[in-house]
Amino acid sequence: MTDSDLTVPADGDAGEMTAHFVSSIVELVPGVGPTAARAIDYKMARRKAARDREFQIAVVAAIKKLWEESENRPSIEEVFDSDEYLAAFERCARAASETASETKRARLARAAASAVLLRGIKGTENDMFLELTERYSDLHVWLLAFYSDPAA
Fold this sequence. Notes:
- The protein is mainly α.
- The protein is about 75% helix and about 0% strand.
- The longest helix is centred in the middle third of the chain and has 37 residues, at about 35-70.
């Protein structure tokens, strides 16, 4: 299994719209505006593609880890062809593209992998799990861990 096996989610998030807005404003500058706007567009598109690729590689690493640990696992084709996996992946990828926290991006990658590979979880429980993973920041997770085990 390689990282190219993943389905690439469709683009269309708020960051892209903001970049185009900034680019449009820069275009209004006489003389160098259009050239600067194209340079900004190019740089933003490359950075977004690199972040998306990093997230996809993190999801593949999480899937490999869960795959090796699990005894009752579906086939890879079954996972990647399922609508549940695609929905979980797109949801987590969208949330990952909107955060700057690397630890939250890692949690979202693990959530995307575990959302489908862990059998026996109902759809509503899976949706609640993904929603909580999206919503909670690093501070929330640290506080939850602290209150559940203060000695650690």
